[in-house]
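Complex 270.
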Amino acid sequence: MSQASGVDAHPTAPRPDPSVAHNARVWNYWLGGKDNFESDRAVGDRIRSMFPVIGEVARADRRFLARVVRHLAGDLGVRQFLDIGTGLPTADNTHQLAQAVDPRSRVVYVDNDPMVLVHARALLTSSPEGATDYLDADVHRPEEILAGAARTLDLDQPVAVMMLGILNFVQDTEVAVAIVRRLLDVMPSGSYLALTHPTVELGGEANVAAMAFWNAHASPPIRARTGAEIGRFFTGLELVEPGLVSCARWRPDDADEAMVPQYGGLARKP
Ligand SMILES: C[S@@+](CC[C@H](N)C(=O)[O-])C[C@H]1O[C@@H](n2cnc3c(N)ncnc32)[C@H](O)[C@@H]1O
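Predicted structure with S-adenosylmethionine bound:
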């Protein structure tokens, strides 16, 4: 079964605004994609001139996503995924990675960008045995996300909550911690939280000026966090080895993969 309830529910959804750079499209540009406008490329190039490693950050983040989903599905037996802050469809989307391990895997994607909504059907190509759904929803509204996810996922069975590059758009750390707690509180024992988050640690000092430029010229506003702040999202959970590290150094396929200033981690709900 493949559902598109979140997509069909928004026949009058806002159109993408090509005049202001938006995160999902600029991220797509840094990843080498074509789903972006001139405004996105201009801001993306300017950020890259200030913070040259940004393209590698984006690619390392996607490689982390692939490794973490394969580990969850292949080694840890997880069959349900709630991917919040999905981004535009790209090469290895969560449902493709998970359903390559087990076609019965069920995936719910969540994003609030109108351009992602336009392309959401590309995320809904489930195997016949499994299911995918797309919710047009804001991470600041976990109750809506949980209600929508429950249409496709069995919340009595373990779920991997994927929050890659999304909590950096929740400005207040207390609010961000509360969102993660609310989502994980509902999930049963054996569920997981996977996340990535930008930082000015790990050699990311140039991110200070780059994020200030972003916040003056693009949307939505972003922020970095320290490893200690990001560690709070895992309170009450058991971090999987190697813990909270540069996402490039989390169980890398290539031992020489260079560190990037983006934390990544995976933890289990006991
Ligand atoms: C940096 S991209 C990360 C995409 C993907 N998770 C990855 O790691 O490649 C962040 C995504 O979060 C989405 N996003 C930003 N603010 C959001 C919000 N308040 N609610 C839901 N999604 C949001 C953006 O539209 C974008 O697609």
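The first strand starts at residue 21 and ends at 22.
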